[in-house]
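pasting for ref. prot 1 ->
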Amino acid sequence: MSNGLSSSASLNGVARANENRLNRWSRTIVYVLVMAAVTIPRIILLVDQLPQITAISFFITLLFISYFPIAGFLTYLILAPRNHTKYPYLIILLVQIDLIFIAIINAGSGSIIALVIVLLTIFITFYENRDADSGLPIIGGIVTAIFASIINIYSPIEQLDIPTISIFMIGYLIAIVATYLLFVFNQIIFAPIRIKLMLLALVVSLLPIIVISSLQLRSTQENLQSQNFSGLTLAANQTTKNLDDFFDNALYNASLIASFDVFKEYLATQPHLPTNSIVERELITTMESITNIEQGIYLSSIAVLSKNGVAVYDTKAGVRVLNESEEDYFKVPLETGRPYISQLIFTQESRTPHIVISSPIFDSNRKVIGVIRIKYLGTVLQKILDDNKFLFGDRSYPMLLSEDGIRIADAVSPLYMYSPAYPLTQAEINTLIDKKRLSNQYFANVDMPDLAELINQDNPPVTAEVDILEMNPGLPEAVAISTMQARPWTLIYVQDQEELFGLIAEQRREYILFSTIIAGIAGLASFAGASAFSNPISRLTKAADKISSGDLAERVSIQTNDELTYLASSFNMMTNQLRGFINELEDRVKARTEELAQQNELLNFRANQLQTIAEVAQGITAASDLNLLLSKITQLVSDRFDFYHVGIFLIDDRKEYAVLRASNSPGGQKMLARNHKLKVGQVGIVGYVTGEGAPRIASDVGQDAVYFNNPDLPETRSEMALPLKTGDNVIGALDVQSTSSSAFSENDVELFSILADQISIAILNSRLYEETNQALSEMQELHRQYLRQEWGTEVAERRVEGYKYSSTGISPIQGNTIIADDDVFEIGKPLIKRGETTNTGEVTPDTLSVPILLRGEAIGLITVEEQPGSN
């Protein structure tokens, strides 16, 4: 006996030793997790901020100074005996405050810090409190998490951007979850059903919110960028048009000047003219007049070139002999007989290039006898670009590149004008200098390889994002590319996206704020719901413990209508207060039901607001009768959208008229009464829509005002009609009228086109339903006729028409002895007839007649008569 006791005591000692060792191991892990939360973020901040001094250095210094007392106090709290029941809550509070400081300092880490706060609070609460009955710390953790996320978004100080902290927090979050699951598996932490339910509810409620918010944020960002690129493209196209307009005007002026007779006469007689002749003086006067008309700082000179390429007169140098026959601006007009725009031409005399506009001079026989040459300073292009700056924001600039990649005009960095925009080899540079397309004084090492890679593609995109020299180095710039028509030059319109990215960041903050608030509300609601659901189970567990220990007076107040009810009934059979418990529970259920009803009513109200369009589309499919359907459609559309008049027109079988079939307004009812119809394709907006098959909007102003003279609808100020189609076939129109002028827009057309499609489908379904019912009725009637005919033939061929059962047995019935009750055959249902007393005093028996049915058709009859004298 003593050996058995010794063995049992030894086993108990081993079990206690193992339990103590497990407790020490678990507390070490908890200590490491808690200290990591307040230590590692500080180390990351210190390493990141050592090389520099920031505006928030004071807060970082304060954070590090506070580390030592916090770490010491946390160490004491964690290693303190377990009978200090309030110490775990102090640990949670200190860690939460510390993480809030991290959220204030580091941008973009609020959401993950909020999750860490919630899960760390749950972990420590249920590690330190085995009863799992402390809801207040968890509620406080959720509230603190919401505060941390919001203060991260709207920080009172300029924040740092240290991605390493966010990465650490993600790893820390994974470590908490893994440790919690490990402790649950080893039964170190009791996994309460409350937390399981809360986590499940959070996942179910928050996952759709996160997904929808993410998709909405992404869609919003894409829309903003798309709109930004569209505006930038318009600015680029406008600038390109202004450049092309300049060259078109210059070509036109050159052609006009070349047509003056004085140039023809001067070139025809010039070699033989004496100095200061009448023709020469007339030429000079004409040139001065042209110069005065073309007056401007960008006009360099106008010259007349002979057929040999000699500048016989130049407004800048007067009469001179300078051979320009090798220049393209002379050879091309001479050979083609057309005006010409030159490249940007650089000379050794000046770093500022010029552009030449030339046009051939014809004699009376349309032979080229010379060329008019007009020189513009290259800076005229820069002037056009400067005039087109800021077309899409304060930091949007155009840049013009030649086909050789030279910045021939640059509003982004005017200092680097006339320099290559992307890398060129020395041989290419030398070639460009020799061809006078590049100055030998160009700026080197100012190229933009990203831009070069973009525009040198076979099919360069219209818009893109690249880094532009001398602009915001931290963000890529948005560019729109456009090609000129007058010259093969490329215009790059550049925009600094700092403002756009700031707007996107602000929207991201708003979405995060919205998600945080919703998540917090969902967390609190989930905890409350989980607590409400788990409390009965906890009470049942405690009651079971007390009853098993001998406390038979324990009462259980649970009524869940499930397995717990059976257990509660077993407990309640040992008490004498079951009725009082039921009354109390009914009151609680009633109160909870009313509360849930109020919440459900609120949710339904919000859902109705968000799903008005969907409900209208669903509501119109409820009726199968076409007239009832159309009437319901007009009433639903009018009620949901508060329209003055809603009408539905259907095209007649001959497709000549659109006939009003339903309306909600009193005026519409009058039109229905007189069979109102409109000529398809001719009369009114409805006629136009049914004829063209396209939507139409009209108001009471402008050319559409003539449509608003209907005496039945005097208050109409704007109207929208949409075609009702099945496939490509127009079957009618949905006519919507409002008392407000210009009440409809293209957005309304898109919205109500969806509704019109649903109406078309509903009309088609209704028609198909009516046709199907009609076909079914005809088929059933035909089938009944067939059964009557075939069964009549069968009966006629039989000798025995029926059988009679009586106390003497079964006997056949022949002849006309069967008394058929036509009423039973007519209605197809059993019929009871009470007996009557005849004139002779004989009493007829009561009878029960039951029809024999074959597929709904009565083919026979069973008649039961009451025996005489029976009761």
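and prot 2 ->
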Amino acid sequence: MLWAQIATPLFYAAPALGLCWLVSRLLDRLSWRAALLLILLPLCFTGRALLTGKVYGPINLAYTGEPFAERAPELGVTPAYAAVLHDLYSQIIPWQAAVRYAWSQGEWPLLNPFMLCGDVLAASAQPAPYYPPNLLALLLPLPMAPGYLATLSFFLTGLGLFLFARSVGCREEAAFLGAAAWAFSGAMVFWISWPLGATKVYLPWVFLAVRRVAKDPGPGSALLLTVVLTLAMLAGHPETVAHFVGLGLLYGVGEILARPRATWLPIAGWAVAGGTAALGLSAIFWLPFLDALLQTFQWLLRQSHTAHVSGAESLGDVLYRLLPNVVPFVHGFGRFSASGAPQHFLPLATGFAGAVALPLALYGLVRSRWPGRWGIAALGLLGAAAGAKVPGIFDLLGALPPFHLALNDRLVMVGGFAVAVLAALGLEAWLAANRPAGLGRWAAASAVALAGLVALLRPGLIERGLPPGFVLDQALLLLVPLALATLFLWVRPLRPAAVAALMALLLLERAAEMGRYYPAVPVAAFYPPMRPLTHPFPAERPARIVAQHFGFVPNQATHYRLEDARGYQAIHHLRFFQLLPLWSSSDWFTRVERLDSPFLSFLNVRHALVPRGQKPEGWKFTARGGSLWLWRNPNALERAFLPRRVRIGDPEQERLAGMQAAKDFAEVAWVEPPPGAPEVPGTSAAPREEENGRGTLAVERAGLRLRLRADLDSKAWVVISNTAWRGWRAREGGRELPLGIANHAFLGLELPAGHHEVELFFRPRSFDLGLGISALTLVLLGLAGLLVWWRESQTRRFPAPALRGRTRLAFGPYNPPGGPPQSVPQPAVPRELP
């Protein structure tokens, strides 16, 4: 681990330098100073973890519960922190561990065996196993991966904003300030380690690619759009990609209208070509995702649920959600409760990009000469309105497909993007003017207005539960940097010093406000061995584990390679979800309160972690721990078993009622034959109950697969307690066997009499199709690239009288906004080719 702690910063620097070189060659020249500053920029937030070999993430939240809490002092962990980050330690990082396990077994990361009785992995989208930075992170130990990925994400999104600002006429100093404002905006800092944040990284790149296609339609521009959309899709949050497409279309319309009408069709054609190629390249990701989504409770909920498309109920609600865009701490950054507030998401409903950036953005809107600033400002206002759920606007968004299925308040991110771009334009306008005027007054007015707003809000904030000391500290962090920036901006002759001061003040402000939002945790605290989790569980004989109450919170079992019947997931198999009342209580995860449910035995739950001193009835003591002891369930059924009787053809409600009343699932199982299965001669289509076949059955786990060996006296149904996601396949002797459904949500397999050796594996047809489409698209793009290269080489050898369009990626000469275009001498061209 020591080598990894030392090598991780170098492992970040190598691809960052490579990307800067590539960008400088293909898009826009980067000075070495700009490249160095952009590479160092993320360290303002991640440096204390990346450079000291610590875990950049809220692993300490695991130490608020058992069995970890008792070891917190020993490992130097402070358990309590921003609770809204709990998804990271209980979802995102365990998913990364499951992906690593799948790759280590030589399997595609399609199945997560460690939660919810076998859950989809890649098809649940957010594990993002094909995302290139995630693939790079596989070369590092898992504790180093969160800090590495966050650092790379900050760099990528800062570089994207920098390039976009350069493309609209900003010099490097102004573009860098905009990059810092966007990279450290509230929406980016909070979400940086989520798949949603990894996708947001590409928002400025989408605008850059759209502008490139509009300015220079051709293969190179379309390729840039393809790469950007593909990376955004593979990053793991399709909902955000849908938002990107909508934003790109709106911005693209504005860019097209600014071009000659004769270019509209080529621009649209190359944009469609780029988007289509991106869909083809990412088919391996989105086809299995759509296939899985159609099987989920969330799909049903989003189609019938209306809360996410309804507008705010009152002006007060709208103002309540708008305030964080200018005063970011009004909801306590998630550390403190606020009565009447939806505590989980309000701290992140913000487009705040730093108080120092606000007067620059206003100045840029007024003084900049780039016409597109008004479109960017309009999109920023649209994002703020969506985040505040403004009636009318929010309702309209919710009525437009595919946004009718999305959480559109997350569009608030565009507010921070707009502020960052306008701030870069504002600084550029100030630097470009011979006699700059007004920016100091803008900053002073902004400081006075913010101070008045904070003073007005302070009594209400304290009344809602925010500590007075916290309000004072955050108010100073908001106002003092802006006041100092005002002093520098007021002294016009010292513009170089003022620019450096503005950058430093912005970075200091954001680092002080949110720099410690993510803790840096010692590597030794990353799920160390502890009793009773070190008990020797049989590796080959599959069995599941649960914990009572809030013990051993899912999905921590993934780090110990234990299969937990519980889980915390963003999407749930619909049929599995319908069975949760049989064995668990409703909470933010599937919580188990009692261990006497016969359904737990059916789920192959052989072990349970129970608070010390409690004795679950019917269970056998196995091993001591600290706060949790391990007990064994002697009645647990094997992962695959032969029920004594089967019921076939029961309607859903009768089936669910029968399972609710069942006392022993080894006695009877409810089965649904696979579609197209032939009817048994002499039977009717009416529901019936029959004796199941007898025989011997053994099951073992081989990585992500199950192997069954059966010797049956007669035809029998085998019940397998793995969730019946579409994509499970059974194979015997090279021949696939049809799978049915058992006990409403699990696998059922009918076998004839005799000896059988069956392999069960998870590989959806949608994955095979997506893999084929992605591979074919990659080949076609390679061939197209070779064709373009060949044509360009021929053009260089035999120059044509005129070129209709460029195909390279370079942007061309830098033209200051409003300045005269640079003329490039053209060589004399003969009228006819020799």
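The first helix runs from residue 2 to 26.
The two ends are 66 Å apart (CA to CA).
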